């Protein structure tokens, strides 16, 4: 692509101003770029640390024109930025990931169809467009998880359903507004574990990846990520990487992409589907890759910047095994409705603790306020300190 690599001093732009945009902005600035954020919230975490913060809605033509006039390249950090906004910007400057890939990632039905096209195993599922189609759902998808096809995150927009009656009630519950909310019913699979691949793919197709993450979710929200050599068998690692690379390549993907997987317990589902099933993709850096800032020689955010700027990608090397803990707003609210600041000094007295706070002033249950990555010389030590950190912060052990 002409004009690449971008020179330091150029302005890079991001749609969405959350914590991913904030950490991306830090990485871009380290490489000498200026950063611009488009996000309506005046206190957005990324807006607070960027050179330019355009405070408007994602489809505001004036805001998009302002971004296009100031920036040399654009990315997105918020999955639900309308693909249309990216398409408009792409007419004027390089946008990575592009609108077509983002459109697929934003819709669970399109996403599943893409996985099937790539020949990667997925949970048995059925798309339900309206209440009349509930009668067509095969019994063997129950017990299942009913999810809205669009706009879900952190376990929101999902209901667990065990029977046809619960499915009907769940579908009704997920409806809002006048248009039918399209849903997808997935068979609930017996999970042995969850893992993710974060990869980065350049304009010319060069692809690198972070070491695989194993992830523990609580209430549908990522709680703990562990990364160390040998966490998964060589076969599983190879299968996950091959699937993730295929998924990215067949989307002509440019930028950082996360692919989430389920590892199945022994049993009939595993016999039918294999050991690994792809769950979903995120067209951006991912919470499970935050550890890379402290544990790897190149972070997922720097990779995103390198992709946008047309700089070379180098394979990230894990220099320290690590445990990442998410800090949710609940931690501030353990003593009632008046928020109490956690004891950061006590946390930071532990060795190998890296604290990242996102600058959010209001703690709410389930809201991601920050994360902690514990690095150590070996995994036993990383886990030991992470458990101590969890004790200080009131996070349940795992
Ligand atoms: P989100 O977009 O909110 O991350 P996911 O589809 O990844 O939604 O679901 C959140 C979590 O719920 C998953 O990480 C997993 O723990 C659980 N889950 C989702 N789908 C299934 C399934 N088909 N079978 C078993 N567990 C599931
Ligand atoms: Mg998920």
Descriptors for this entry?
3 domains; Dna Ligase, domain 1; 12 helices; 17 strands; binds magnesium ion; D-amino Acid Aminotransferase, Chain A, domain 1; Rossmann fold
What does this structure look like?
The chain has 398 residues and is of the alpha+beta class. The protein folds into 3 domains: 11-95, Rossmann fold (3-Layer(aba) Sandwich), CATH 3.40.50.20; 124-187, 2-Layer Sandwich (Dna Ligase, domain 1), CATH 3.30.1490; 191-393, D-amino Acid Aminotransferase, Chain A, domain 1 (2-Layer Sandwich), CATH 3.30.470.20. 29% of the residues lie in helices and 25% in strands. The protein has helices at residues 19-30, 61-70, 83-90, 99-105, 108-117, 164-174, 234-249, 268-273, 292-295, 300-309, 344-348, 379-393, and strands spanning 11-15, 34-38, 52-54, 73-76, 125-128, 144-148, 158-161, 183-187, 191-201, 207-209, 213-218, 221-227, 255-264, 276-282, 322-328, 353-357, 368-375. Strands 9, 10, 11, 12, 13, 14, 15, 16 and 17 form a 9-stranded antiparallel sheet that branches. Helix 1 links the parallel strand 1 and strand 2 (34-38). The longest helix has 16 residues, at 234-249. The chain is globular and about 60 Å long. The model has no long low-confidence stretch (mean pLDDT 96). Bound molecules: adenosine-5'-diphosphate (ADP) and magnesium ion. Adenosine-5'-diphosphate is lined by residues 123, 145, 152-155, 186, 188-189, 191, 194, 217, 220, 260, 279-280.
């Amino acid at each position: 692509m002409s004009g690449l690599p971008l020179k330091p001093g150029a302005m890079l732009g991001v749609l969405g101003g959350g914590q991913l945009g904030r950490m991306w902005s830090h990485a871009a600035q380290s490489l000498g770029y200026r950063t611009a954020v488009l996000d309506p919230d005046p206190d957005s975490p990324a807006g607070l640390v960027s050179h330019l913060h355009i405070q408007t809605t994602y489809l505001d033509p004036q805001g998009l024109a302002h971004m296009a006039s100031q920036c040399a390249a654009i990315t997105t950090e918020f999955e639900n930025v309308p693909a249309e906004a990216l398409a408009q910007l792409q007419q004027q400057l390089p946008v990575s990931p592009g609108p077509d890939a983002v459109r697929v990632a934003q819709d669970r039905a399109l996403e599943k169809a893409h996985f099937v096209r790539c020949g990667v195993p997925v949970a048995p599922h059925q798309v339900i467009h309206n209440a009349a189609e509930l009668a067509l759902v095969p019994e063997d998808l129950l017990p299942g998880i009913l999810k809205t096809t669009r706009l879900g995150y952190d376990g929101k927009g999902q209901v667990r359903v065990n029977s046809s009656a619960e499915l009907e009630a769940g579908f009704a519950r997920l409806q809002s507004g006048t248009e039918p909310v399209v849903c997808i019913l997935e068979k609930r699979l017996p999970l042995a574990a969850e893992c993710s691949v974060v990869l980065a793919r350049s304009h010319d197709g060069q692809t690198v990846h972070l070491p695989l993450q194993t992830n523990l979710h609580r209430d549908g929200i990522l709680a703990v990520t562990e990364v160390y050599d040998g966490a998964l068998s060589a076969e599983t690692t190879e299968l996950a990487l091959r699937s993730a690379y295929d998924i990215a390549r067949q989307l002509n993907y440019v930028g950082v992409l996360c692919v989430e997987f389920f590892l199945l317990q022994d049993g009939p589902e595993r016999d039918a589907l294999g050991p690994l099933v792809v769950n979903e993709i995120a067209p951006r850096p991912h919470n499970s890759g935050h550890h890379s800032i402290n544990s790897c020689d190149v972070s997922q955010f720097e990779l995103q910047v390198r992709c946008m700027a047309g700089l070379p990608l180098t394979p990230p090397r894990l220099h320290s095994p690590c445990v990442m803990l998410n800090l949710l707003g609940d931690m501030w609210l353990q003593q009632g409705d008046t928020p109490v600041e956690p004891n950061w000094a006590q946390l930071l007295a532990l060795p190998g603790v890296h604290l990242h706070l996102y600058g959010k002033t209001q703690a709410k249950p389930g809201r991601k306020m920050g994360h902690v990555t514990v690095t150590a010389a070996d995994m036993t030590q990383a886990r030991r300190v992470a458990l101590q950190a969890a004790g200080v912060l009131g996070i349940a052990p795992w």
